[in-house]
Structures are given as C-alpha cells and as structure tokens.
Design brief:
Chain B: Belongs to the adaptor complexes large subunit family. Chain B: This is AP-2 complex subunit alpha. The complex is a heterodimer of chains A (about 140) and B (about 1000). Chain A contains 5 helices and 7 strands. Chain A is of the alpha+beta class and about 140 residues long. Chain A has one domain: Beta-Lactamase (2-Layer Sandwich). In chain A, the strands form 2 sheets. Chain A has a 5-stranded antiparallel sheet, sandwiched between helices. Chain A has a two-stranded antiparallel sheet with strand order 6-7. In chain A, β4 and β5 form a beta hairpin. The radius of gyration of chain A is 15 Å and the shape is globular. In chain A, about 50% of the residues are buried. Chain B is α+β, with helices and mostly antiparallel strands. The longest helix of chain B is centred in the first third of the chain and has 21 residues. In chain B, the strands form 4 sheets. In chain B, strands 11, 12, 13, 14, 15 and 16 form a 6-stranded antiparallel sheet that branches. In chain B, strands 3-4-5-8-7 form a 5-stranded antiparallel sheet. Chain B contains 43 helices and 16 strands. The chains are: A alpha+beta (about 140), B alpha+beta (about 1000). Chains A and B meet through β2, α1, β3, α2 and α3 of A and α1, α3, α5, α7 and α10 of B.
Chain lengths: ~140, ~1000
C-alpha cells in the first residue's frame, strides 16, 4: 500500500503532500523533513529505494523537483518508480510544459485532482493518461464554453 | 512571475501564493499567513453573504496554508457549504478540504453525509466520484454506518459508469478496513470477484485492490478469483504491445495491472486445477522469456516496467516454491541483474535472491553467484546495496562455503560503514558458530572479530566464545595459545583483554609448559593491560589473578603483592577494593585444598540457544532471519539473553552450594556481588553493609500492609476521566493487529501508583482494570482484575506484558495467558510475578486486545512497576543519616528538583505518601522540623542501592525542594523524576 506522496523542491520545501494513512499534522512536518533529508542527501548513482523505519521510500528526481512515495512492502518498487514517471507525464501533458514546483503551487487543486484519479486510498486505480485527465478536461471545456 | 494557472484561475489566490513564494524568511512567511488568516476569518464572519466563488477562493487559500504546515481550525462550515454547490470546481474544493482536513466533529459529519447522499443519488458520475472519494478518505464509523450497504450495490450495478465503479471499489475497501462488521459481502462476493473480467482495465485495476484485501481475510470465499486472475494475466501477457492502447506503457502492456494480478495470486497456494496451473506456468515462462528478448525501446521506462512484472513473477515463483525449473530460471535471471549497470536492479536482485536462497530447489543455484556477490560487497558505492549483498551472503552460507564467506565478511568489516558494523559482527559470529567444523577456526574467527571491530562486539559475542571454549575441551589449549598471542599486540581491544583474562584464568595451565608462556609471563602480559581497562574488566582480571594463584602456586607472591598495593586494596571503586581485599585474604588463609576447591575449573554451561542470534533478531526484525530459526527462538521463550544471565545464576548456585563455591563464577556477572567462600554472601557495596543492620524483611511487610489499608480507602480519581478510549480508536485508525502505542495518559496513570499499590488503574465505558500488588525484597506479585462493564461478551481477550528496550534485561515479568472470553459483567484475574534484576527507569507495557461487538479494541497502558516498589525501609539516627549523606557526595549521586506543589501540602498527606513510597520516614533527624527525611535500600537481584531523601516544603511559596542521594546515580535521577510528580 502507498502511505504518502510528497513533492518537494531542492530546498526541501514541501510543495504537495498527500497522505493515505492518518498522520497527525505535527508529526507530518517532522516526517517530511526527515524523509526529504534522507532522499536529497543521496547521490545520483545510489539506488532509488530507501529503507526507512518500517517501510520504504521510492523517489525520483526531475530537475529541481523531487517526488517521494512511501510504500509498505506489499508494493512493487519498480512499479511505483514508474508510477511516479507516469504521474509526471500526465502533469506535463496537462500543463503542456515541463513541470516545475511553481506550476504545482499555482495549480494545487488540479494536481490533487490528477493524483486522486491515479491513486485512491493508497492503491493504484488508474494508469491510462487520457482517462486520468478526463474530469479536468471536462471542467476546462465547461469553463471555456 | 507568470501565473500558470489554467481554467478559472483565482487571481487572489495566485497573488497570495506569489507573496508566499517571495517571502525571504520563515518569519515573513508566518506574518503574511497570519494576515491572510485574519482576512479570511473576517470575510467568513462578516455580514455580507459570500458567493460560491469567494467561498471557494478562501477555502482554497486555507488548504494552501494547511499544506505549508499550519494548523487550520476554521472554515469547515464554509467547505461543507461548497459541497452543495452545483459547480464542479466549488464542490471539488469543498470535498478536497474535507478529505484533507479530516474532522470527526459529529455535527459536521451529519451535514457532510447529507451532501454525500445527494451526490450519490444525483446520477452525475463526476459528482458520484467526488462523494465516494470523500467517504473513502474520511472512512469514519458514521459514514460507514450511513453508506456501507449502498456502495456494493453501486459497485456491481450494470448501469454504473466505469469511473464510478473504480471509486466505489476503493471506497468499499476503505470501509472494509475501518469497519469490517458493517461491510457484509455475502451476496456480493461472486459479482465482485467477476469484476476481474470487466472489459475496462481501470475497473479491474481498482477491483484487484479490493479483492486482494478481501482474499487475505476470507481466502476460501474468494478462491474463485485465482482462475479469473490467471486468465486475465494470460490475456495481458500474450497480447501484442499495441493491443491495450492507452494501458500500454512504453510498449509494455498494462504493467501495473500485471503486478497487481501477480500479487493477488501470492495470497493463495498454487492452483489445484491442472489446466489453470498449466496456464499460469505458461504465463510465468513467457514473462521470463521476455526478459531475454531484445528491448522494444531504449528508454529506461520500458525496461523498468518490464522488470517490475518480472520481479513480481519471481516473487510468485518463490512463494509457490514448488517448480524447480522456474526457481532455477528465476535465479539465473537475477544473476544477470547482479551485474546490471542500473543500481536499482542490482539492489532488487540481491534482495530477491535472498529469499531464493532459502528454497531447497534454488539454494545451490544461488550459491553459484557467490563471487559476484562478494564483489558487490567490495565495490558497490551505495551502502544500502552493500547491506543487501551482506544479507545475501549470510543467506547463502552453508557448511560448504562458510569459511570463504566468513573470511570475506571479516575483511569487509575492516572498511565497512559504521552503520552496519554491529550487524555484520553478529552475522559473522553466528555463521562462525553455526558452521564451525573445527572449533579452532571458530576461536580464530571471533578473536579476529574482536581485533578488527572490537567496539562493535557486544557482550553476547564474547560471552558466547567463552561458553563454547569452556564446554569443549578439545579447543581449550588452542584458545589459550591464541589469546596469549593476540594479547602480545601493543594495543589490543578491551574485549580481547576480557576474553584473554577469562581463558588464561581457566586454561593458562595448558600452555604454561612453554617457557615463552610461563605462568609469570602470562601474568605480566595480562597485568600490563590492567591499568588501561575499565572497572568491570579490571574486576574480571582480579578474578583471573586469584585463579592463577590456584593454577600456579609460584605466582602467589607476585600476585599477592599486586593485590596488596594501595591502588588495589584502597581503590575508590568498592567492587575492586572488595575483590582485592577478599582475594588477598583468601589466598593467605586458605589451605591449598580449600583453594583448589573454591577456584575449581568452571563447570560446562548448559547448552542453549545462542544469545547472539536473539540479539540479531532483535536488531533486524524477523525479516533477516529464516523461519526455522525464529521457531527455535519461540521455544526458548524468556531465555533470550541466555549468555548474559548465566553469570548471576552460577553465582547464586555457588553461594548456596558450599561444596563447589567458585569465585570466578561471577566473571560473567561482574555487576553482581562477589560471592567468596568466607565472605558473607550478600556482601554488596559498603553503603548497603552499613544499612543492613536495620533488619530486612519483617518491618517492610508491616509498612506495606499499612499501605494496603490506606490505599483502599482512597477514592479512585481515574473513573470518569477517560471515556471510551477503545471505541473511539476505530474511527481514526484502521484496527491493527499490532499493539497500540501507550495511551497518552499512560504516564499520568502510572504516577498515581508510585505511592500506592492498589486501586483502579484504568477505566472506560467498556473495561475497568484494577490492581493489587505486593513487594518483598526484589520480588513482587501483581494481581490484575479485568472487569467487563458491558452486558456483552468480550471475545479474543488477550493481554500481553512486555518490557521494551533495555527494560528486558532489567526486569523479569512472568504471567500466564488469560481466558479469551470475558462474559458481560464478569471479572477475570491475572497474576504477574515480577523480579527486579537491576535498577530500571521505564515501565513495562500492558497491551490489551479484545473484540467488542466485532470491533477490535486495542489499548496499551504502562504497568505501575516503579523502582521504588523494591524499597526496604531503613531506620537510623540523625548523625548516622548525615554521615551517610556526606558519603554520598559525588555530584552525580545527587539529584535535586525544585517544583511547585500540585497537591495538598498537609503534613499527614505528605507523611502517608512518603511511607507509601516504601522508605522509612525518619523523625528528629533534620534540624528543621518542617522537613522530611527518608532512608531506604532498593533491592535488586544483582545489587542493593542505598537511598537517602530529603523533602523541604515551603508552605508560603507553595514550593518544594526535593533532594535524593543514592549510591547509584541512575537511581537518584529516576526517583527524583518519579517523586516530583507526587507532591
């Protein structure tokens, strides 16, 4: 099961966080700081899976943006690693440009919609790009029309 | 900064976000946020009704602020209002807010439920999805009660849109996890399983998560999913890369779905139906074959997706563990990955191979990769990959390759990362013992370990080598020779000195024939290390010296001289001083015969599980150790620290059995008192000797009895303070099999029992737990009474007492399991036997689990076993008291706290509490009659700790000053902490 998805910039600031297990607010900040420190300090040639407490982190870097996913051992690491990439490709497709942490901040609600279409309750629910974007495309049509 | 907002961008929001991004400091950011919060608050409170757009904008701002890590305590009502909007974006922000800022405020939940109900019946698929999503995210009991019966219907209805089915599947999964009693699958089971056949891949992806979870809980009911999953998998695997259109990812058809199907199959044993099994084996072979085909794309995404499926298939093959052909192919495939340029693949391959090594079919195949794995251990640049390589070497080790693997691990240790050294040391020690053919190799290995990584060699490791040497006479001469040689090194680790001292003390005679290691040479070698060592090691060496006097009478004069010198006989450490005095006396008055009996060679240790293995398990968790080893461990039960508690055992035995008293029996139990023939057996440290005149057991029992009476009269304050901890739990967190963390008020409950032994420990609407306890010397008995306050039976009632962390070696708590059923209104009793081994600070944990009307209740309390329970009161006169007070003048022996009174400062109340503490309350001692002074001795198995206490109340300021002086500093600190909460 997926425990959380974090999007973090190179300064370690959280740009998006989505938890699929209830974590108290005051523990989130500490967890995020620790998780981010853990991933940001790793070099390019180190492996993308990190043992962390009783679960694992799968992370992927896109320029200045890091995406970190916390998973239990019932998940397949490589498939989560590619899920992250699929997510980024969906964002690229929707925003028609390379995703930056700025774009995420200005469109937080939409990024959440996209993420929610892909992962629900910590489980992968949809991987087809056009279906993931279907609700947003519908809204945008309504707004334009 | 251009705002890249799409759709109906909210300008105010964009400006706010820009402001935040431009903030130069954290302070500036907080200032800007507070300004915005005040603005939103005033807008929400204002007289003017806000339109939907403004509400959405402000709620969105609140969400953003929440994301930056600030708590949001308002806006919930506005968010709920947005739910009833007809505009998708407004509704969506409302739901997002509710989902992210879960709030179990029942008033709101009712409103939210209403909105959800409307959306579910709206027939608008996007609205239905939002509503289902919200239920799944909040997942509270109230929501489950309202919608649990509705959702399966939506899930399987023929006219439900695909996207709604997906959300419904995940929603049902959440409700099943949080309130399994409300989700009744019975009539839906077959139709849910058939979702695996749904023509829409997204629906299948979502449904598998639900089916996997349901199968784990009710494997028999969902058995039919196996054949459906196999045929679905087979269709995907055999499809061309273009067949599945949008579900194909970089030329790999439906990789995520394939992984999930393979994972679902791992919930079941291999299919019994021959045709199904044949089809599955074909699938697995195809997946293995595809790994050998040339890639359809150079992109890393292509190979990652392909390999994700491959690793999952290999997991399934390992799970079945019945197809030798597939197992060997899997092993060969992983072998290729071991040399792949992608670090991720090497990491996963090492990990996967570790499980493959434990299968009898593939163990040999795994072994063929030994050189590659050793190379990985030496050359990998990522420590986590090296760690996996070390794990794999450990897993593939058997008698045939043990020497090679141990040698490689030893040489790696010299440069290994600090973070994994201790674990490596334990692994080497275990392998060396497990696969030792000749014990001289074992001794060499352990001594090498100490030489290379002495700091990481725990007590268990060197205890173990001594146990083995003592038990096997064929290796004793070799061990003596080897330690003698190892000690020649100018700088050797203290652990080496310990092993050397012990072994030469026992078996030095076996090498004394060689003039190069004559008795005097041996003694001088040991003594040359003496002054550089810590107190415990020096104590051990002193015992080795007295053994030398017995083994080699010619060393007697030299050793007596050493014992006699001031640095020994007047040593400031009482233990060393006492040993020096007693050994000196023993050597001068005892006849040769007596000496030979007293200092006889150690008897063999009883065979028991290696304490090292237990330590590794504790360190790594079950994953690192094979199942059989774990089973062994369970049988051994409480003896986890076999090696460690061996010392005091023999010490006790030697003391009680006058015919074979052996002073060196305590070589392993240095912290216990030294039982030497003539000396009184209880001789602890000096302070205790002085105290012991006060007479031990009888008066203490009397005090305790008083305590019982008084405590029974005290009303319990706990009754109302904690309402339904248990049933509230199930809302916020899914019921788990793991013990819950201790209640937040566990410490407070514990504090109520520091000065009393009986009363109600805990009470909520369901359960009451009462306690009665009595203590004598270092032993205690506690009666726990569990009362069922409801009229309904508690099922699967289990209680577990655990000693977390180091407490395990400090306190021994034993009990029998209780009856699993507690009838309504009934009370059951449990008896705990408690033994205090050494002083301690933490409290043992009591975990209680039971089912009440289907919901799992899980709560953890701290048992009120505190160090002061083992007090024996000591009466003494004023000048005695202050003389001892001065003796305990080292700064760390004193702990002091000045604090405000929390309770009544009434004299009688204070006196009652101080007596309840277990000490003697001394009259006419302190010149100031307002002050209270107490004295007592804490009895532990290994040691007695004298304690003096002074409490100075200041009635005017409503303050106290509390001072404690104890012969052990950790005790002073702990008592001070405990008592500061009492007054």
């Amino acid at each position: 099961m997926i425990k959380f998805v974090l999007m973090v910039n190179r300064q370690g600031q959280t740009r998006l966080s989505r938890y699929y297990e209830s974590v108290e607010l005051n523990r989130r900040a500490a967890l995020e700081a620790d998780v981010v420190r853990c991933c940001l300090s790793r070099k390019k040639d180190q492996c993308s899976f990190v043992e962390y407490k009783d679960f694992r982190l799968v992370y992927r870097q896109y320029a200045a943006l890091y995406i970190v996913v916390g998973v239990t051992d019932s998940e397949n690491e490589l498939s989560i690693y590619e899920l992250v990439h699929n997510f980024v490709e969906v964002l690229d497709k929707y925003f028609s440009r390379v995703v930056s942490s700025g774009a995420i901040m200005f469109n937080l609600d939409r990024v959440h919609v996209i993420l929610d279409e892909m992962i629900q309750n910590g489980h992968i629910v949809e991987t087809n790009k056009s279906r993931i974007l279907a609700p947003l495309t519908a809204i945008d049509k309504m707004a334009d029309g | 900064m251009p705002a890249v907002s799409k759709g109906d961008g909210m300008r105010g929001l964009a400006v706010f976000i820009s402001d935040i991004r431009n903030c130069k400091s954290k302070e500036a950011e907080i200032k800007r946020i507070n300004k915005e919060l005040a603005n939103i608050r005033s807008k929400f409170k204002g007289d003017k009704a806000l339109d939907g757009y403004s509400k959405k904008k402000y709620v969105c701002k609140l969400l953003f602020i929440f994301l930056l890590g600030h708590d949001i305590d308002f806006g919930h009502m506005e968010a709920v209002n947005l739910l009833s909007s007809n505009k998708y974006t407004e509704k969506q922000i409302g739901y997002l807010f509710i989902s992210v800022l879960v709030n179990s405020n029942s008033e709101l939940i009712r409103l939210i439920n209403n909105a959800i109900k409307n959306d579910l019946s709206s027939r608008n698929p996007t609205f239905m999805c939002l509503a289902l999503h919200c239920i799944a995210n909040v997942g509270s009991r109230e929501m489950a009660e309202a919608f649990a019966s509705e959702i399966p219907r939506i899930l399987v209805a023929g006219d439900t849109m695909d996207s709604v089915k997906q959300s419904a599947a995940l929603c049902l999964l959440r409700l099943y996890k949080t309130s399994p009693d409300l989700v009744l699958m019975g009539e839906w089971t077959s139709r849910v399983v058939h979702l695996l056949n749904d023509q829409h891949m997204g629906v299948v992806t979502a449904a598998i998560s639900l089916i996997t979870c349901l199968s784990q809980k009710n494997p028999d009911e969902f058995k039919t999913c196996v054949s459906l999953a196999v045929s679905r998998l087979s269709r995907i695997v055999s499809s061309a890369s273009t067949d599945l259109q949008d579900y194909t990812y970089y030329f790999v058809p439906a990789p995520w779905l394939s992984c999930k199907l393979l994972r679902l199959l791992q919930c079941y044993p291999p299919p019994e139906d021959g045709a199904v099994k044949g089809r599955l084996v074909e699938c697995l072979e195809t997946i293995l074959n595809k790994a050998q085909e040339p890639p359809k794309s150079k992109k890393v995404q292509h190979s990652n997706a392909k390999n994700a499926i491959l690793f999952e298939a290999i997991s399934l093959i390992i799970h079945y563990d019945s197809e030798p052909n597939l197992l060997v192919r899997a092993c060969n495939q992983l072998g290729q990955f071991l040399q792949h340029r992608e670090t991720n693949l090497r990491y996963l391959a090492l990990e996967s191979m570790c499980t493959l090594a434990s299968s009898e079919f593939s163990h040999e195949a795994v072994k063929t990769h030994i050189e590659t794995v050793i190379n990985a251990l030496k050359t990998e640049r990522d420590v986590s990959v090296r760690q996996r390589a070390a794990d794999l070497l450990y897993a593939m080790c058997d008698r045939s390759n043990a020497k090679q693997i141990v040698a490689e691990m030893l040489s790696y240790l010299e440069t290994a990362d600090y973070s994994i050294r201790e674990e490596m040391v334990l692994k080497v020690a275990i392998l060396a013992e497990k696969y030792a053919v000749d014990y001289s190799w074992y001794v060499d290995t352990i001594l090498n370990l100490i030489r290379i990584a002495g700091d990481y060699v725990s007590e268990e490791v060197w205890y173990r080598v001594i146990q083995i040497v003592i038990n096997r006479d064929d290796v004793q001469g070799y061990a003596a020779k080897t330690v003698f040689e190892a000690l020649q090194a100018p700088a050797c680790h203290e652990n080496m000195v310990k092993v050397g001292g012990y072994i030469l003390g026992e078996f030095g005679n076996l090498i004394a024939g060689d003039p190069r290691s004559s008795p005097l040479v041996q003694f001088n070698l040991l003594h040359s290390k003496f002054h550089l060592c810590s107190v415990p090691t020096r104590a051990l060496l002193l015992s080795a010296y007295i053994k030398f006097i017995n083994l080699f009478p010619e060393t007697k004069a030299t050793i007596q001289e050493v014992l006699r010198c001031d640095s020994q006989i007047r040593n400031s450490d009482v233990e060393l001083q006492q040993r020096a005095v007693e050994y000196l006396k023993l050597s001068s008055i005892a006849s040769t015969d007596v000496l030979a009996t007293v200092l006889e060679e150690m008897p063999p240790f009883p065979e028991r599980e290696s304490s090292i293995l237990a330590k590794l398990k504790k360190k790594k968790g079950p994953g690192a150790v094979s199942v059989t080893e774990l089973e062994d461990n369970k049988r051994e039960g409480g003896e986890l620290n076999g090696g460690a508690d061996r010392g005091p055992d023999t010490a006790a035995m030697a003391a009680s059995n006058a015919s074979t008293p052996s002073p060196s029996a305590d070589l392993l139990g240095i912290r216990s008192s030294a039982p030497v023939g003539a000396a009184p057996t209880s001789a602890g440290n000096l302070l205790v000797d002085v105290f012991s005149e006060a007479g031990p057991a009888a008066p203490s029992a009397a005090v305790n009895d008083d305590g019982f009476l008084r405590d029974l009269e005290q009303p319990t304050e706990t009754s109302d303070s904690l309402l339904v901890e248990g049933s509230g739990d199930s809302d916020s967190a899914p019921p788990s099999e793991d013990p819950a963390p201790p209640l937040s008020e566990a410490d407070e409950l514990l504090n109520k029992f520091v000065c009393k032994n009986n009363g109600v420990l805990f009470e909520n609407q369901l359960l009451q737990i009462g306690i009665k306890s009595e203590y004598r010397q270092n032993l205690g008995r506690m009666y726990l009474f569990y009362g069922n306050k409801t009229s309904v039976q508690f099922a699967s009632f289990t209680t577990t007492v655990s000693c977390p962390g180091e407490l395990q070696s400090q306190l021994n708590v034993q009990t029998k399991p209780v009856e699993p059923l507690v009838e309504g209104g009934a009370q059951i009793q449990q008896v705990l036997n408690i033994e205090c081994l050494t002083d301690f600070s933490d409290a043992p944990l009591l975990n209680i689990k039971f089912r009440y009307g289907g919901a799992l209740q899980n709560l953890t309390l701290k048992l009120p076993v505190t160090i002061n329970k083992f007090f024996q009161p000591t009466e003494m006169a004023s000048n005695d008291f202050f003389q001892r007070w001065k003796q305990l003048s080292q700064p760390q022996q004193e702990a002091q706290k000045i604090f405000k009174a929390n309770h009544s400062m009434d004299t009688e109340v204070l006196k009652a509490k101080l007596l309840g503490l277990g000490t003697a309350l001394l009259d006419n001692v302190d010149p100031n009659p307002e002050n209270y002074v107490c004295a007592g001795v804490i009895q532990t198995k290994g040691q007695q700790v004298g304690c003096l206490l002074r409490l100075e109340p200041n009635a005017q300021a409503q303050m106290y000053r509390l001072t404690l002086r104890c012969s052990k500093d950790s005790v002073s600190r702990r008592l001070c902490e405990l008592l500061a909460e009492q007054f």
